[in-house]
Sequence to fold (294 residues):
Amino acid sequence: MVVAVAKPAELADFASHPYRLVQFVNSHQDFSWKPLWSALHVKDQEAFLPDCEGPNPCSGEVLAAAGGEQVIVVLAHKDSYFRVYVRYQRSDTGRWKASGTFQPFVKYFAPEYRLVQTASKSFLVTTGQGVAGTGLSTTLEFWLDLTAPTFTPTFTFTKRIHYEPWPNGVGWNGKGRVLSLQTGPPERLVVAYELEFRTFEFPNLYVPLGTRRDTVVSERTGSGPGRILPDLSTATQSEIEYFYELGESWSDTSTEQRCARFVRFNRDALAKIAAGPDTQSRRALSRIGCDASK
Fold:
């Protein structure tokens, strides 16, 4: 592929056509995205990509939704993992018009993305960084309804969870996956979660501390985002926020409080450890102050 150096105004000239825009991005280098955002009337806080400097630093891709009247342009800065999704819809006159942007937060990984088609709707599904810090990280999965007037997530859930306390305590790894999607009305997303608890023992041993599985149902009845239905879910709102989302209530608790919440949340698995032959797990629980017999 021949890569050309872009002139500042050229990118804005292609803002009104998704396929030409992607062709431009994939065949040019050394350009700023600012003329594009200006041409699309996108504010600075709504989209950001680092300048495309050097050989082949950026890429573009077109995702065509069913019916051909709508496409998603994926604009990427490769080294930084930054992605911006631009929604284009075809007008009655046949012209393409940008109708929204979405950008997930990134830190440790590049977003994954795909289109999902149901019997009545198309969705853009993408991942993004949730919480991030030393020893902890969550991956969020966003579902954007392409039949909705706004280009914002309809449903969001935690796809991957990792928490590793240091130097001691209960940690966990987890994952969430979609069991079913009901496009309504009302719209419902059913997610299956699984958490594996463990603690670390020097020099290089992880001791298992039980597994917890839950089913969480979210529903959307209006134009806003989906909300969890506690009566149809096997975990409470506070448990979901604490263990699956590593939310604010998690960060405010002490080691003793975290241990107490872990024992309540994982009581069935801990009862099996207490009654079973796994002395290593029982010793580990006693060592970290989370005795399974309590």
